[in-house]
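Methods — Computational structure assignment.
A single polypeptide chain was analysed. Its primary sequence is given first, followed by the predicted tertiary structure written as structure tokens.
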Amino acid sequence: MKILRKIVFILLLLFFFSSLTKNLFDYRSKVSFYQSYLKDYENEKKKNSKLKTQLLKKSDSYEIEKTIRNKLNLLRPDEVAVILPQPSPTPVVITPTPLPNWLQWKKVFF
């Protein structure tokens, strides 16, 4: 009878231990899934706020006028466009590098 009790007790312990390890592995996988999901959620939240900011910026009347003026080159009826020519690059005069001092003294005396 005692042997049967010990066997049942050992089997019960093995069952609990296996169940515990299975639950721990499931818990780890679920935690990693949660962390990745949370990271994706934060990225999408930042992207959403950035897009909302762009939407507000694009719907602003000042920004619309700025875009029309800069990209489409349009003017108001009472404005005059002044077009300036591109500045020409100034030529750079290349000066030769001077001789070292000892060589200059050598030329003077010899």
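Note: The mean pLDDT is 91.
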